[in-house]
Design brief:
Blueprint (H helix, E strand, L loop, with lengths): L11 H5 L9 H5 L6 H14 L4 E2 L11 E4 L8 E7 L8 E8 L2 E9 L4 E8 L8 E7 L5 E9 L2 E9 L2 E5 L8 E5 L7 E9 L2 E4 L4 E4 L4 E9 L5 E8 L6 E9 L4 E5 L7 H4 L20 E4 L5 E2 L6 E8 L6 E9 L4 E5 L7 E5 L5 E6 L5 E8 L9 E6 L2 E7 L8 H6 L1 E3 L1
Parallel strand pairs: 20-24
Antiparallel strand pairs: 1-3, 2-3, 3-4, 4-5, 6-7, 7-8, 8-9, 10-11, 11-12, 12-13, 12-14, 15-16, 16-17, 17-18, 19-21, 21-22, 22-23, 23-29, 24-25, 25-26, 26-28, 27-28
Length: about 425
């Protein structure tokens, strides 16, 4: 049986509000750790250059969660630095500075104004035919618009080589050519979403296909992910809203080398992927649920086996890999859509259990299909709540999720549940 690694407690606040933004005040609490020595030296050089202490702009998503990025921007074999900040003397927009190390000291060599007032993401890329590394910055405006900019740094000159408005993007080798491809979902329009794919050539991103109309069945893009298929090919998973604020569905795309463009992938296991993947919670976004490189799509199972529970709080969920030749359930369990967590259960329990209210507030139980045998009780409590045979599964901000094993003959260990707990 596969079980999932538990999530870190401190991340709960951000994960529960979605991946686009943190609530007011949380950025400073979670994104401002003590700077290491190299970052501290870069900040001192920036302060000396500006003549004031700038507000460093921390990205809200992505792998780089620091306003300081280090790489060899110009290809001379020496590590350079980039810093994103707002200066009171330069207006509200984010500024980008590049620094080089000269005689052991950091020196600002270039700076330029960015495209909006905050930073959503930062990535680095090595484009075919270009020296050094390029910097990709996703900017976000207070009005909701987002802009992606690609910067190149050569001969102590910082150039913006590409920019475009976007709602989501993915940087990965989709075409299998060994270099970075850029897939961009444009902002929403009355005619639906449009997807564009660009490949890196001679230090530039070049469109390899006309924009692909995703269709008006999606009103917005809620997630774009690259996924390794069962055949070793790369796929794109797109999660989109289907009309109401909490209704999501998914589509799958892949790069057709013969046509040299992205095309829609139609799984052989379902006739209509859009209908099969419709779910009614914005928390149920696709993810690599078992950390094997394949992104699974969550499917809400029907309401059979539910008794007396608050409407739309709990749901049986199966995480599906549709890129295999057969329908494959990678994980089965229960999602608590009110509190924002998922608990994996043994796969053989699917269709053999029911969910009922627990004896305590904010608690629920897993029982046999006839309701006679108690397998598991789960509750959400205050941090100091102890006893009664419960053990802690994880944290939900200031609250705790606890579980207690039942007395049925269905064998289950607490360690299994700990590994199977995951924040949505």
């Amino acid at each position: 049986m596969r079980w999932i690694k538990g999530a870190a407690a401190l991340a709960a606040v951000c994960l529960l509000v979605g991946c686009g933004a943190a609530p007011a005040g949380v950025e400073d609490l979670l994104r401002a750790p003590q700077l290491d020595g190299q970052q501290n030296e870069v900040e001192k050089a920036l302060i000396a250059y500006l003549g004031e202490t700038p507000q460093m702009k921390y990205p809200t998503t992505g792998e780089h969660l620091s306003p300081f990025v280090f790489d060899d921007w110009n290809g001379d074999g020496v590590t350079d630095a980039a810093a994103l900040y707002v200066s009171s003397a330069k207006g509200q927009n984010v500024h980008l500075a590049v620094l080089e190390s000269v005689d052991g000291a950091w020196v600002v060599t270039q700076e330029r104004e960015g495209l909006a007032t905050s930073v959503e993401s930062i990535e680095t890329a090595s484009l075919r035919g270009a020296e050094g590394s390029q910097l990709l910055v996703g900017y976000a405006a207070a009005s909701g618009e987002k802009y992606l900019a690609v910067y190149s740094y050569q001969d102590q000159t910082l150039n913006e080589v590409f920019h475009q408005s976007y709602s989501q993007y993915e940087l990965r080798d989709i075409s299998g050519t060994g270099g970075n491809d850029l897939v961009i979902i444009g902002p929403e329009t009355d005619s639906g979403l449009q997807l564009q794919m660009l490949t890196a050539q001679d230090g530039q991103f070049i469109p390899v296909m006309p924009p692909l109309a995703v269709g008006n069945q999606f009103t917005s893009c809620e997630g774009l992910y690259t996924s390794k298929g069962d055949d070793g090919s790369d796929y794109l998973i797109l999660d989109g809203q289907t009309g109401s604020a909490n209704s999501l569905a998914s589509m799958i795309l892949y790069y057709d080398a013969r046509q040299q463009q992205l095309v829609t992938y139609h799984p052989i296991t379902v006739d209509d992927l859009f209908t099969a993947t419709q779910r009614y919670s914005s928390l149920l976004k696709s993810q690599d649920i078992d950390d094997d490189g394949t992104v699974e799509i969550p499917v809400q199972l029907d309401g059979a086996g539910m008794e007396n529970l608050a409407v739309n709080r709990l749901s049986f969920v199966a995480w599906m890999d549709y890129t295999t030749e057969y329908e494959q359930v990678k994980s089965f369990g229960v999602a608590d859509l009110e509190y924002g967590y998922y608990l994996e259960l043994p796969s053989e329990w699917q269709g053999q259990i029911m969910l009922t209210d627990g004896d305590e507030p904010d608690s629920w139980q897993v029982r046999s299909a006839d309701g006679e045998a108690l397998h598991l009780t789960v509750r959400v409590v205050e941090p100091n709540t102890q006893g009664a045979g419960y053990f802690q599964l994880g944290n939900l901000g200031a609250q705790r999720v606890q579980a207690r094993l039942g007395t049925s003959d269905w064998y289950l260990q607490s360690g299994d549940l700990l590994r199977g707990f995951r924040l949505l």
